Amino acid sequence: MDLLVLIAVRMLETMFFLGMAGSTIVLLLTTIEDVETLTESDEPAPAAQN
Amino acid sequence: MASSNPTLPSVSDRVRIVVATSVMLTFISYWRAAAIVLNDLASSAFYACGIAEQAVGKSAPWFIVGVMLFSFTVRAVYVESCSMFVRGGVYKVVKEALGGTLAKLSVSALMFDYILTGPISGVSAGQYIGGLINEILATMNTHGWLPRALQSMFHGAPHINENVLSVAFALAVTMYYWHENIKGIQESSEKALQVMKITTVMVVILLGWAAITLMKNGYQPIPWPTPANLHFNDSSLGFLKHARISHFMGLFGILVAFGHSVLAMSGEESLAQVNREIAHPKLKNLKRAAIIIAIYSFLFTGLASLLSVMLIPDAVRIPVYKDNLIAGLAMYMVGPQILRLAFRGFVVVVGFLILSGAINTSIIGSNGVLNRVSEDGVLADWFRVPHRKYGTSHRIINMVVILQVVTILFSMGDVYTLGEAYAFGVIWSFTFNCLAMLVLRFKYKGERGWKVPPNITIGGIEFPIGIASVFLVLLTVALTNLFTKSVATMAGIAFSAAFFAIFSISERVNRRKHAVAELQMKEHFQLLQRDTVESEGLGIRPGSILVTARDYNTLNHLKWVLNRTDMREQDVVVMSARISPVGAGAYDLAAEQIFSDYEQRLFTKAVSVAEGFGKKISLLVVPASDVWSAIAHTARNLECSAVVAGLSSKMSAEEQAFFLGRAWETIPEPKIQFVLQVVRPDCTVSTFRIGPHTPSMKNEDVLLVHRLWLNLTRESGLEALHHHDILTEAVTRFARDYSGPERESILNDLRRIENQPGQLSQLRSTEESATQQPALNPAPSRENKSDKC
Predict the structure, then answer these.
(1) CATH number of this structure's domain B2-17+531-690
(2) Which residue, among B472, B479, B538, B629, would best test binding to A if mutated, counting the most A CBs under 10 Å from its CB?
(3) B469 and A23: CB-CB below 8 Å?
(4) Buried b / exposed e along B549-586 (16+ C-beta atoms within 10 A)
(5) Is residue A45 part of a domain?
(6) How many contacts (CB atoms, under 8 Å) link A and B?
């Protein structure tokens, strides 16, 4: 039983830290985009619609 | 096609119904959108760190900071989900990706999240209020300000049971918002913005004062988030408390601790709910709103958590302030006690505003999601039957509030237990949403405005590395929480199973019922989808009469119109607005969802009324977030000369005109003026002109102008003066004075006039009686109640 729990725990740990590594890249890339979005100016609005 | 079906009548025999698929919205800026989301998201700052520290120990703030940083990536997933051009409710979209069973589970988890937002916010607000009252009583006792009789009665300072008070408070606020939601009073983004402005003032004072305190008094170090510094209790290990956990805790402890802190990002899902209302350029503004939300919640929730451990001594932080940590932070700032107590009072006021608002948001959100689920066909139509008087989906609201009341009573004011349960809904609803987005990357080939980076293309196949990474974190945390949060797991599974059963049974019943209804509909109606409503495309002549219809039992006003209209001269359009309130869903409805059973019944009755008069009417359904905006937009687009409505059960005819006039102000140019006629059940009619128009003048004002004219024309060089010249000069002087130092005096005079009985309706431009140029041949009368059937 302990072995099964151990295997499950190690799998979860691996997945979590892999995910965290990837999420850190997402965080960095989106932060760069965010800075661009905040500094960009708007295009003129299209003709009025519903 | 329907016309080729031998069992159906030909297309020309059937009544055409135009279904507009673009929602008529009153758009909001990204600041307001951010304020709405932050009202939910920032509320978790008031309880998240206290719960996390009880579960994992003193290093909890680092995990809260980690969760807040991770929330930036969850936000990115929601931005991608909002940038997809799909129609249907959350159930339909997730079903497309994951199939019916997982979609039902996903909606159940989302409902668990929404419903628990109310109880945890209410109970937490009660804890802050209880804590403040006890602190004030203790301070008064210390200074000998308490009456002796009171001291001897309580053997010292009286002490309120904070748990009992928080339950009573949460119940009272929930019942208040239940009543408001039954009445259908909409929350405005303006109110959300005001609350966030006050919250921002509190956050700035909190961070600034804390910085001064840190410089003056120093701080307690926060242990690094390493396995050695994690201290779990039996409750925070859940089902694992009996396992020989020390064998494999290590890095897994980090995962467990992260899972206990995840509720700090609860409320992120509200971003999807406000997406539809965001103004042009939609995607850019959505991203801007998301950035504001992420930075604000990071600064507030993240920094407040760190500061609470740095400034509040260990001896009192958990024993005294575990349920009102920000109030505790206020008490351990540098400065005189009275100032600290005053700031704590301010913290409690802000907590009351933001947490009470979160209770309302939870009822509105639950109602919106369940309405959408019902439109998607997985909740029986019975739940959506409108309230007889207010037209709201009262059965759904009642069900949501009953569940919230039961939760509040069961919690007995324990914020920790509520928080643990709440985290179940939060993490599983995020996980299902992220999984759906991941699967849709391969299944959905339609328009998508933005994708979570990075994406790598190998052999023509794009691999969504970013979204898969976020999903891995969410999934592992959700699975870990299943084992470490026993109360949450049991409550969450019981709740989700109950909702899953309701959805499954409803879906089966609806499938049978809808098959019959669909056949009936095809026999009588021809559904035409139009992206926008325009008179040319719909074959409606300019100058038509727009008749609003909501309740098929009250179509007197339609009879009144048909009785007086020459159809050779004017078209009559019967319009039903399909309302999805702000926050009802991330996606637009599909045509068959907009034209549901209820609209079918309503239009069947309307057609039958028209046939009774031997006249033909046009039928129109428009989805909208606000009924007044829908009427104003449709009247403009169809170039209507008149809008005719029945008297609302919620407001007077004058108020109906006021709200329509206000909506008229927000529609884009070119605007047209039209007449609103409100027909009462006794067929008396009030007429109002909408848009700028010549105001009707009181007799005494006309006489005054005439007297002035008589006097002025006697003056040299003014013999040719006209009456309107006097008015021009008067109004020009008024405008000048109004923008000068006389402004306050003018406003006071006007307030005095408005407070005189019978004056109110004459001051509002949109509420003016329009007896001079009636649209629909009412009797020539100068009375407001101008006509009868």
Answers:
(1) 3.40.50.620
(2) B472
(3) yes
(4) bbebeebbbbbbbbeebeeeebbbbbbbbbbbbbbbbb
(5) no
(6) 113
ipTM: 0.89
State whether residue A20 sits within 8 Å of chain B by CB: yes
Q: What are phi and psi for residue B621, nearest 5 degrees?
A: -120, 130
Interface test with B, best of A2, A13, A16, A41 (most B CBs within 10 A): A16
How close does chain B come to A4, measured CA to CA in Å?
11
CB A28 within 8 A of CB B270: no
What 8-state DSSP symbol labels residue B699? H
Distance from CA of A35 to the nearest CA of B (A): 9
Q: Is the CB of residue B287 less than 8 Å from the CB of residue A34?
A: yes
- The answer on pLDDT for B586 being more than 60 is no
Q: How many CB atoms lie within 10 A of CB B406?
A: 12
Give the domain range for residue A22: 1-36
The secondary structure of residue B278, as a DSSP letter, is B
Q: Pairing between strand B618-624 and B785-787?
A: unpaired
Confidence of residue B593 (pLDDT cuts 50, 70, 90): low
The residue to which tokens 């329907």 are assigned: B2
Q: Are the beta carbons of A50 and B637 separated by less than 8 Å?
A: yes
List CB contacts (< 8 A) between A46 and chain B.
280
pLDDT tens track for B152-189: 888 888 889 999 999 999 999 999 999 988 887 666 67
Q: Is B389 exposed, middle or buried (0-12, 13-18, 19+ CB in 10 A)?
A: middle
> Hey, how many other C-beta atoms are within 10 angstroms of the C-beta on B448?
15
Query: pLDDT tens, B649-668?
Result: 778 888 889 889 888 888 88
CA B494 to chain centre: 28
Instruction: Determine whether the interchain pair A50/B252 forms a contact, defined as Cβ–Cβ distance below 8 Å.
Output: no
Are the C-beta atoms of B544 and B770 separated by less than 8 Å? no
Is the separation of the CB atoms in B172 and B15 below 8 Å?
Answer: no
Q: How many domains does chain A have?
A: 1
Whether the CB of A4 is below 8 Å from some CB of chain B: the reply is no
- Chain B residues with beta carbon closer than 8 angstroms to that of A21: 469
Chain B environment of A22 (Cβ under 8 Å): 465-466, 468-470, 472
Q: What residue of B is the nearest CA neighbor of A50? A: B24
Domain B23-504, CATH: 1.20.1740.10
Q: Let me know if residue A49 belongs to a domain.
A: no
Task: Answer whether A7 touches B (CB < 8 Å).
Answer: no
Q: Do B288 and A37 touch (CB under 8 A)?
A: yes
How far is Cα B600 from Cα B17, in angstroms, rounded to an integer? 10
Residues in chain B: 789
C-beta separation of B732 from B652 below 8 A = no
pTM above 0.80, yes or no: no
Closest CA to A19 of B541, B464, B526: B464
